[in-house]
Design brief:
Structural class: alpha+beta
Strand content: 15-25%
Order of helices and strands: EEHEEEHEHEHHEEH
Radius of gyration: 23 Å
Low-confidence stretches: 92-128
Shape: elongated
Largest sheet: 6 strands, mixed
Mean pLDDT: 76
Number of strands: 9
Oligomer: single chain
Number of helices: 6
Length: about 240
Amino acid sequence: MQAPDGAIWKVATSAKKDTGPADRRIDEVVLLPGVSDVAASKRFYTGRGLAVGKSFGRVYVEFATTASSPVKPALYRRRAPAKDVGVTPDGAGSRRTRDRGARPPRRRPAHPTVTLAIVRRSVYTDHMKDGPLREPTFLILTALAARAQHGYGILLDVEEISGGRVKLRAGTLYTALDRMAADGWVAVDREQVVDGRLRRYYRLTDEGAARLEAEVLRLRSQTRAAQRRLRLRPAGGTA
């Protein structure tokens, strides 16, 4: 969507399908300038006091903010916002874009940098609340059952618990954590800044522990039913 002042707004949601009624709830607003060198721009801003909240290599960086901040700053490659506004990444076209990379902005730039504000909306009704848990959700809750962990620790634990079969991507993990936090199953335990990057620890809440226990009982009941029926199976198969 393009506002009357020319600003571009993108609406992003974790749900790919319309599975529930619209609740008109906005989780967060992200100010997203496009830059030519994400890594260099990240170094510039971390050198001036910003801590990194999420980082996906040279593609996307999201800076940490306080809970009271209405807008979260982030960076991504200039090519994406240029495509959104219909111009070439090198700045040609009717609405030119110019990336300043790691250089501090001028007071009166010759060509304004196009920025995008991303509105994220977590709308999902995949029966997680009452129905069977999906395996990634079950594994994440299990990883947090004994102690609070940060994101990378959860990724490693999920892989270990699943015997190496499930390897979650960082984006998948944080999307799941956001959804489970909205449900009250997990909460932020503490935050630490290590080497200029924010390390956020998550813990399992009482509600999350109860939900995990309910899933364990459900799986145990189904396993017992399967075992009983296997014992009734005739030797050598059915007649």
